[in-house]
Amino acid sequence: MSQTSDFFAPQSFEAEVPDCQIEGTIPDGLNGAFIRVGGDGAYPLLHKDDTPFNTDGYVSRFRFRDGKVDYKGRWIRTERYLNNQAAGRQLYGYYRNPFDTDPSVSHVDEPWRNTVANTSPEVHAGRLFALKEDAPPTEIDPVTLDTKGFHDFGGEYRSQTFTAHPKIDPVTGEMVTFGYEATGLATNDVFLYTIARDGTVTRETRLKMPYVSMIHDFAITERHVIFPVFGYVTDIERLKAGKVHWHWDGTKPTWYGIMPRDGEAGDLRWFQGPTRAVIHTFNAWVDGDKVILDAPMFEDNPFPFFPFADGSQWDPVKSRALIRRLTFDLNSKDDRVQEEVLFPDLPVIDLGRVDERFMGRETRYAYTSFNDATKPLDRDRIGTGARRVTNSYGVFDMRDRTMRSFFAGPTHALQEVTFVPRHKGAEEGDGWLIGTASNYAEMRTELVVADALHPEDGAVGRVILPFRSNVQVHGRWYSDEQLHVW
Question: Model pTM?
């Protein structure tokens, strides 16, 4: 296998590594699978200024069992992937724009057919899905990683789209999910669903948003849903002009829609906050008559590949995320949001997690990545392939406003972290931090396991791949109990 100085060049192959090399030890009882979904360029993008979110879907899995780990990676064989494979070239243009494709695959009236399914894994009712917010879920065989095709929950899921970040209620086992642009390109329709533990759709609510916006993530409490609507916008004229799906309009007001989980469209109440981009959330809960939302948020356009509506230049300072707490007083006539920055001096990566056994309930800890500039960086060994370095996982105590961290090493950059409880009945915060690291010096991917109670002690174990695996967008841990296929 030839190597390249660019760690993020396409991997371009499927892989299977039984009984991976392990440094240190894998903790007892850590049995399950860490599943990653991301993009890899099977065929180069047509436009150099396109977003990396437009690359072909790839699913990979680290299978943990009795201290040993196996790895498998496969292309997600979407219709788009198969069409490109048959043509031997890239047929699709700018991100989520069926007007900018080869005429044979435009599918303007059925845009979900053009998905790359490259954003996030989810397991529900014994099924594994690869998700992207422009299409219904793509079902994946959890053992073989073969692509099984779209899943519509017995025909009862009617939105054209499905969020990349559904929420599983830890008490009821219900999946609360939604699709935006639910009735077609550039429509401001959102369909909200409740899907029971057995995979049956039990509720559909159809909503209208203030304007068409990227609602990539949302949040739930025990009783509510919260939708953030902000300045990533589009319209059908933009798409017909052959442009990338989103652009940033900072003049658009930031809205937060809150409604009861069992409510109707008329129950949706809107609160207005300062200009923000809310790509991902941590968690939300109820405190009396108030709803509290924790999330890493941006003051401006976070992605340089989505242009500004007014022609402005991307600002790397304003594109930093800070952890904020929003408070919505449901008993007040004031529809303004109360906002507090919890860690004002520590920009973070906005890919964050909580202990999902407490989703929708008050959580003390949040977990996400950041770059600790006080830690050593071996520039001579990382070479030219390091586009950015995110060297630490943070355990953020949202009550005490303190932080403890895990440092990956002077030649490593970390991808999204996930939290795994030490055992089923462990207290919140007692468990493991798991995620993959890019070892720039050795041009390989390593999965790291650290103790969430003592992250400063370093990795208790590392799973070593003999190559650089494709870069994930999101990764999730599922125990054998959650994914009962072995």
Answer: 0.96
CB 301 within 8 A of CB 277: yes
Q: At 316, is the secondary structure helix, strand, or coil?
A: coil
Nearest to 179 by CA among 128, 129, 211, 227: 227
SS3 content of the chain, % helix, strand, coil (to 5): 10, 40, 55
Contact 282, 296 (CB under 8 A): yes
Residue 85 parent element (H or E): helix 79-87
Both tokens of 1, joined, read: 């296998």
β pairing state of 138-140 and 127-131: antiparallel
CB 68 within 8 A of CB 149: no
Alpha-carbon gap, residue 72 to 35, rounded angstroms: 10
Contact 302, 216 (CB under 8 A): no
Q: Which two tokens stand for residue 278?
A: 């809310």
- pLDDT band (50, 70, 90) for residue 17: very high
Rounded alpha-carbon distances, angstroms, from residue 125 to 199, 200, 221, 428? 5, 9, 21, 25
Round to whole Å and give the CA distance between 434 and 24. Answer: 14
The DSSP symbol for 213 reads B
Other residues' Cβ atoms within 10 Å of the Cβ of residue 215: 23
Task: Provide mean pLDDT across the span 48-53.
Answer: 95
Quickly tell me which residue has 């909580």 as its tokens. 354
Whether 221 contacts 256, CB under 8 Å: no
C-alpha–C-alpha distance, residues 131 and 380, integer Å: 38
Are the C-beta atoms of residues 164 and 216 closer than 8 Å to each other? yes
